[in-house]
## 1
Amino acid sequence: MIFRQLRTSFLPSRATMASSILLAAILSCISNVPANAVTYEFNFDDVDDGMVMAPLVGFGAVSFDGGALADGTYPMDDFSNIDISFNFSSLTSFSEMDVVTPTNEVLFVILNGGQSFNFSNTNGSPGAFGGAIDFIKDDMTFGLSTEPPGTGGNLDRYFVAAMDNSFIFFGNYEGTLVPEPSGLVLVAPILLLLLTRRKRLTAA
């Protein structure tokens, strides 16, 4: 009888064991989750002063499969599932389907410890407008060009123009890394529930 009491007092309860097993399974899943898509958020202004400041005229994002990137220059064709979405007020928008520059010439330039993104190009005068990456709408109404010619090779310059060559927006843009939530943050509510349940069982 005494041995049975001692054994009962030192062994964890079934509920505690179940909680521990579930916790271990969750942590194991977190460690084995593959890297999600990398996303950079973009802002565009309408003043060419080397900075991106309000009022902003455009917003968007670029995402692609893979993990975080170190500073460097990467060919666009090295990435898969590239998604581009740029919106300029209620006027027009552009996606990866509107790119008219040969993608094997487009470069992704990563700076500031992986936090910043710009477009560049291996060719001096590529695309329809001669920019690093150029976009033209299917209906031939509007175009977008980054690092257009005649701007001193500044990677953060861009323009949006009507196809009659009239400028609509001309200024600077920036791409900023969107941080991914950690696995621990994602499962925090589950961990809190397990701890609360364990305390209740201990108190009982």
## 2
Amino acid sequence: MRPRHLVILASVALVLLAITVVAVVRSRAEAAWQAMQAAIAAVETELRAQPTGRAPLWAERGPGSAFEWYGRAAAHLPRSDAWLTQVDEAAAASAPPSNDLRDTWQAALSALRAGATATDVARPLPGRGRADAPEQVPDWLTLARCAALETRALSAGGDGPGAARCWLDAATFAGDLTHQGTLLDHALAATVLVHLCTELPETELARLPPEALGLLADGCARLDATLPARPDPRVDLLAMAALLQTTATAPGVVAWRHGFSVRWMVGAAVADMAEHTRRLETGADAPWSRRAAQLRAAQAAVRADDNQLLRMTLPNLLDIEREWRRMRASLRVLRVSLALHQGREPPDLADPVGGDRIRVDARADGVRIACAPLDEAEVPTRLFVR
């Protein structure tokens, strides 16, 4: 065969090979995309089946959507840097805030209360009209801090029941953030609730009247019963899918392992993350030492995956779940302390860190209430002194 004929045959073979490769890549990409869509549909179905109603922690049921009210509350907050500095300084001080500063957030706290008494906590899912969560975080945090400062001021002014109600409004808001919330929502809720618990030190509980203690004890028990055992990463899966699907191109992402098809790479990343999420449902209630080891192993496996998008979008479940356990421990230790301040027998509560029961030990200096340590340096604890 002449060399020219060999060149022609080789060229034809290369063209046929290229056509075959393109067909295979398109087929794989379409299969991955369909698998992703099926995973998204399954998660959306599961989440939409969840109830969207909840009872208030202390008040009569009110009208409207909780999150619409929370949005109005955030809109009432001043936006100036000078005002935010005043809030920061008031939060750092031990004294109650000034009356002038309190006047600036009364409209916001009125809307917060309306949200806390509303029973509808439905909100759109990611990709279906939900606002961008990172943009809301500063407002949500500021709103909760204002409520905590108002609680401090009401208590210092002798209105213990009013302080308890304001505290529970903020706690309700934090709990509502977990309803179909992203991992960022859960992290924010944990931050707010831990801060609220620190605003009720033992010295503060000791001077609260029985009505206020009763409001707090009942409200904390209801809140504890409604909080999830762990943050639910399924909403983040939808958020990741919505983000990646709108990316026509992926700058900086090399999809050579997926035939240079970003569509294939995106579909595979979302489908793999859905499977990764479902595997982590097992062991969610294990003691923290075992759960932390499971999460570390899962993160290591994803980081070793050849899908760059999967590695880039992996949420830090280890840190988020750790903070969630810390918040649950802080809340339950507070519940035990509230019972003691009321003169009641302490409730026998599960330890969300160690998996056993919260320890209540009488000592010479008081009653020590403690969970298992999250690590060597941190043990959620309180010391009740009669």
## 3
Amino acid sequence: MNRPHRMSLQRIIPLKNQGGRFPCHALRPFHPERLSAQRGITMTCFSCARQLIIILSVLLLAGPVYAEKDLVVSPALKDLALTGYTRCFRSVTLTSEVAGKAIRVNYKTGDAIGDNPFIEIDPTFINLSIKNNKLQTDQMDSRIKSMKSNVHFLNKSLQRVKALRKTQNATEVKYDEAANLLNEAVHELEALKLEKNMLKLSHDRLMEEQARYKIFCFKGWVVTALHVEEGESVQAGMPLAEVSDYSTLVVPFSLSGEEVKAFRDLPPSFDGILDSIPVKVSIHFINPKFDENTRKLQLELAIKDYAGDRRGGLKFSTRIKVITDGILIPRNAVRNRFGNPKVALKATGELVPVMILGESGDSLIAAETDKLIPGTHLLPADNPVSGG
């Protein structure tokens, strides 16, 4: 037996009769689980539709950005490969400040300088001069000590004569003689002290000269030339050896003004190849002096991080982009019909013929004209020139 549905579980649905009126209401059973399922399906469809609308909007907005790239004429650049060879960072010629005989040479050509002196010159005569100076200084100290004692005695004598003069037991002449002897002793003591200072100054000069008998050099530098052997006589100012600093390698170049500008436009540290090994390079210096014979400027590159054998003559190469004659036109802006290449100006749509001089990557090198200058915007071509 079917039981009637409760009103709380019923939904009143108006039924339209044939006359368009609603004379009665029909009661139909209400199922909550069906309503939840229908709502879930409706919400899922709505979410999908909303995501689709967002995606289409993004594509419509982004479409013009990716559909057409701005095509601009730029100055023509050519890729230039430069090759050079390394040399030392600095080079110094060693000379002697004193004369004598070389009794020891501690390094030979190719050796790296260590803690020992490079060359030792016989110090016999300078050592004797220092000993003589010391004896003279000791003698002077003895004379000064004796003179101080004499000054002290004469000062006491003067005081006694001065006391006797007050009692009229000593004449004025004796007082003057005692005072004069004291003054002479004091002046002689001052002269001895001055002579001692001169001996000290002479001693300092001799010690400095003695230090020159051992010739030291920069630690870590390399001997590249040796001009003296042990037992050979050395004269003051005579070149003894040549030492070089290879801790940093430099590569000299003689470049045009455009090439120097290309190096200036590079970052502070750029790439290069040294003896088939990639290295980082920086500009050591640019000499502003212009060589009228070669019409070039001198530039040196410095290499510090090279892990190989540091020496001269290593082959180095790098590449720069130099401004050359002509302009660069994007390849996909050039129309090529019947062997007559042209480009369309973006501002007016006018077709302008171009004279192609060469290629550079995705661009063509063309002759500059009044209508085609760097900064001119172009329209993309229907049948662009293909790479050859």
